[in-house]
């Protein structure tokens, strides 16, 4: 069972995000790190914590499609229906960003990875934040993602600005990634 975050904990997490912090929270399959995708310093801190190169890009998670409407506006009706059929849910799609997201989010790509999460903690966090957030697995590059809170603490110690409690979802692996233009599965 996945727990919904307590209102006071949710407010504390959003406060940490508004101050440019990096927080950890449970997601569909693993613990994740989140920050404000439009705060260059926050993203740089998250990337440094993970030892992840900038060119790889990051995933954006949203509470509902309206939070990422700016990325969906020029998609075809069929593409929008494809997204709607899988969201909210554990599917991340590569969408053309048309320069609407910063390079520190898209990396070297003409697409950006986006999902509308059904996980109660991620969904509540994005809703309280009022928009999409970075969602990246809580681990250093090359290490197995954290599936337990103690692993998050072991990986990052006191380097995080907040830990939003809850339980990970029932998925065994991080969300699948698919390319909307080609339909190809990038990560199953």
Structure write-up:
By secondary structure, the chain is an alpha/beta fold. The chain has one domain: DHBP synthase (Alpha-Beta Complex). 31% of the residues lie in helices and 20% in strands. The chain is built from seven helices and ten strands. Strand 9 (176-179) and strand 10 (185-187) form a beta hairpin. The protein is globular and about 45 Å long.
Total of DSSP H or I helical runs spanning 4+ residues? 7
Summing up helix and strand content along with how strands pair, one would put the structural category as alpha/beta
CATH C-level class is Alpha Beta
Number of strands: 10
Helix-strand string = HEEHEHHEHEHEEHEEE
Please give the radius of gyration in angstroms: 15 Å
CATH topology: DHBP synthase
Overall geometry comes to: globular
Give the helices and strands, then pairings.
Elements: H1 7-18, E1 23-26, E2 31-34, H2 40-50, E3 59-62, H3 69-72, H4 77-86, E4 91-96, H5 103-106, E5 111-116, H6 120-129, E6 133-134, E7 136-137, H7 149-156, E8 162-163, E9 176-179, E10 185-187
Parallel strand pairs: 1-8, 3-5, 4-9
Antiparallel strand pairs: 1-2, 2-7, 3-6, 4-5, 9-10
Helix pairs in contact: 1-6
Keywords:
single chain, 188 residues, alpha/beta, DHBP synthase, six-stranded mixed β-sheet, four-stranded mixed β-sheet, 10 strands, globular
Write a short abstract of this structure.
The chain has 188 residues and is α/β, with parallel strands linked by helices. It is 31% helix and 20% strand. Strand 9 (176-179) and strand 10 (185-187) form a beta hairpin.
